[in-house]
Amino acid sequence: MVRLSLNPMEPLAPPISRVHRRSGFLARKAAGSILARLCSISGYALLVLAGWPGVTALADEARRPNIVIIVADDLGYGDLGSYGATRLKTPNIDRLAAQGVRFIRGYAPSSTCTPTRYSLFTGEYAWRQSAKRTGILPGDAPLCIEPGRVTLPEALRRAGYYTGAIGKWHLGLGDGVTVVDFNQRVRPGPLEVGFDYCHIIPATVDRVPTVWIENDRVLGLDPADPIKVSYDGDLGGEPNGLDHPELLLQRADKQHSGTVLNGISRIGFMQGGKFARFKDEELASTVVKKSVQFLEAHGRAPFFLYVGLFEPHVPRIAEKPFVGTSELGVRGDVIQQMDWATGEILKALERLKLAENTLVIFTSDNGPVLFDGYFDGAKESVKDHRPAGGLRGWKYLVFEGGCRVPLIARWPARLKPRVSEQLFSLVDLTSTLGHLAEAKISPADSPDSLDLSPVLLGETFADLRDHTVLHGISDTLALRAGDWKYIPATRRGEASAVGGARPSDERFAENQIPSSLLFNLREDPAERNNVIAQCPEKAAEMQARLAAIRQGSSGGQQR
Ligand SMILES: [Ca+2]
User: How far is the CA of 507 from the centre of ligand 1 (A)?
Assistant: First the structure.
């Protein structure tokens, strides 16, 4: 019943604690025990007092967790000590994993940033929308979530949570009718899709504009020096990376050779806003500072904090204390910086006595990539470290390395530390967290999201999700179901270049699937042995199931 040995499809995910499942009774007992601690009274008196209104309110708050979701950017399945890395020091996240539920079949629904984050907040696979809305968005793209939709943050807000987003956004800003003007109120944005507060950068650090936005205003903007942004052509007035390589801290490819800002050439062009521009070497500290301030200000209410970390996405510029601290070059340095940043947020929860009843989720939005536009030495310094933990592929691809990610959930009041084999897609966070927070999110609002809270709480032995769809660039899809993975041949016109990059680029070449692939992940976790010729019936079944899910079915899964 309890499988202690991990099957071979989990190549570098040693258990850090025994696989342990717990009953609903134990979970309820844990909730009771925290209440007892809170009240400092005996269990008997607790039962007597439970009917009192004040105590009921207290019980509610002990039952409903505060929620912090920390999403790393391009962190691979093998990039943490708790997931098998030996050359990286990630003690804070490893401790979180040891204290919580560590999933070894956690999946980003997409292998790139925007669509995964879209799915995380909406409970819908991003590929159901137009790629224009949910592809890898430029920094001036409109908001890709429909304002007014009952998203995860919106549902939590309606359920009485104070909601905040800090760090990376990359879900677009503005209505798409008027070109977003960063000198005015930047709306709609996070505040229109469920957040009470935000302190974000619009897209990614490698894209213009390189500014912070608090709520709906660019911070530090001087009206006399307005911001202009273009993804079509150089605006002039500022050096670009192609003409001025002498200004660069890191050489870059053509796509990343737009305006040079803070010694880094970016994707796109920007003018003005000189006082508003962020410094790359202060981004992590800013995320920590703002997250801690958020917890200090709102720790009394039930709260939901989304933290979009920047590491280890490019450009990788470590803050001073982390420069040269890893044995894997700058990518290692920023991963260790990311661990520090996570640790600071966890420390703040402890200091504020919020840790016990706060559900902390740590994960990544997609798999790793070494070279991603900047010649920063990451590739040359990787040694024998395997960022994807030995899985095939990387960011951008539907192979396991692109989508399988670390996924950790810690909630001391209710979750006992263990390793879980439950297949868990980040698209499931909407329904799962919504349920735990007693927030109303209908299946219509979150059509692809399953409530996996019984698994999280250890209340069931059942496998509540036996399949998930994985999504690569240019809307390539794969079906992961049971032990099997089916990747259909690339259709004509699919898998083309992304964002100006060439399809012959080695990052994207494997996205071209000349003929359909079928893997048995239990026997072949690295997706090396295509068995479609030996198992045509299984392939046909998977093909039909994927087609049905594309058409809107739940793929035969109960919800
Ligand atoms: Ca990413």
Answer: 14
